[in-house]
Design goal:
The protein has 14 helices and seven strands. The chain is of the alpha+beta class. The chain folds into two domains: 217 residues, Orthogonal Bundle (Endonuclease III, domain 1); 119 residues, Nucleoside Triphosphate Pyrophosphohydrolase, CATH 3.90.79.10. The strands form two sheets. Strands 4-1-6-5 form a four-stranded mixed sheet, with helices on one face. Strand 5 and strand 6 form a beta hairpin. The protein starts with a helix and ends in a 12-residue tail after the last helix.
Length: 363
């Protein structure tokens, strides 16, 4: 028999009280959540796994333990601390949001979803999560884990992402009136530990008796998924120029757009047509560039293949417009995105060898 809304909600909360995950941003049972920690973790968790976020969250909290300290930090330092976590617009918005909260809200988070959504980097999901978890507001919180749980409970035939419009109503049908923050986190934990994408542990699920997906005999088939579009391949070149004192030539990307505000090496545009004369895009004029191989990187909407070229420059080498020489110590803590760290490793591995000849566009 299908349980009532109250019964199902209470059963899920009882399961959560016994099996809740211990996470760096989650307070102990009975303790009040810190809105700053809730916000920081939810921004970091956007399109990123809990495992990947944990170390970054702890690093941010150690470096900027309060909202006001984060707001006072240089944006370059925030981008540097974020390097490697991906989706770098989140870091820019995080800093902008902290500054706006301090300047316009007295350093306090608003409690209502509609007010939270007016802040930089806070969309529908993040606003609902903060309102529910930090302030116990009755909000419908739908992340990837929750979509999967609810789609299975209802055996939704509409594939994602189109099914997103049906999930809030199904979720509201069994959301309890009490403990909205714990209920939201219970669903997240259920999806992360029991109702997993593959081989869900249905026999351990507190809602298995109500799950239409389980009754089909194939809960893994839910949520249905639309056919994926082919990811286009873009190509480009990156130029690693090392000065005689070990400094490397870098520049900063524009503040908006992909990898905005991050540090990079000089390079060509990334394009989908075939490779051309990459050296035509190299900085510093006539320098004997050597081909150091290719690297691959996957972004959300396209795959990237970069040809890596390396060269060495004298101490008095001119600095091109927008360029900056960074010594090895600065490079270790520079806000280089993962794709540029890959290029750096390929270039340094190449330079550590000997006996290679110059080449224009290929080995």
């Amino acid at each position: 028999m299908v349980k009532s809304k109250t019964e199902r909600g209470e059963k899920l909360l009882a399961w959560y009280d016994r099996h809740r995950r211990e996470l760096p941003w989650r307070p102990a049972p009975g303790q009040k959540p810190d809105p700053y920690a809730v916000w920081l973790s939810e921004v970091m968790l956007q399109q990123t796994t809990t495992k990947a976020v944990a170390a970054y969250f702890q690093k941010f909290m150690a470096q900027w333990p309060s909202l006001s300290e984060l707001a006072e930090a240089p944006v370059e330092a925030v981008m540097q601390a974020w390097a490697g976590l991906g989706y770098y617009s989140r870091a820019r918005n995080l800093h902008a949001c902290a500054r706006k909260l301090v300047a316009e809200h007295g350093g306090r988070f608003p409690e209502r979803e509609e007010d939270l959504r007016r802040l930089p980097g806070i969309g529908q999901y993040t606003a609902a999560a903060i309102a529910a978890i930090a302030f116990e507001r009755p909000s419908i919180v739908v992340d990837g884990n929750v979509k999967r749980v609810v789609a299975r409970l209802g055996a939704l035939e509409t594939p994602l992402p189109a099914a997103k419009k049906d999930i809030p109503a199904l979720l509201a049908s069994f959301a309890p009136n009490a403990r909205p923050g714990d209920f939201a986190q219970a669903l997240m934990d259920l999806g992360a530990t029991i109702c997993t994408p593959r081989r869900p542990a249905c026999v351990l699920c507190p809602l298995s008796g109500d799950c239409a997906g389980r009754r089909t005999g194939a809960p893994e088939d839910f949520p249905r998924k639309a056919a994926k579009k082919a990811r286009p391949l873009r190509r480009g070149a990156v130029f690693y120029l090392r000065r005689a004192d070990g400094a490397a030539l870098t520049r900063t990307r524009p503040p908006s757009g992909l990898l905005g505000g991050m540090v990079e090496f000089f390079g060509s545009a990334w394009r989908e047509d075939e490779a051309g004369d990459w050296i035509a895009h190299a900085p510093c004029g006539e320098i004997p560039w050597r081909f150091a191989g290719e690297i691959d990187h996957i972004f959300t909407h396209f795959a990237l293949k970069l040809s890596v070229f390396v060269a060495e420059a004298p101490l008095d080498a001119a600095t091109p417009d927008g360029g900056r020489w960074r010594n090895p110590t600065d490079m270790k803590c520079a806000a280089l995105p993962s794709v540029m760290r890959k290029a750096e490793r390929a270039a340094q591995d190449f330079l550590a060898l000997s006996g290679f000849t110059d080449a224009r566009n290929s080995p």
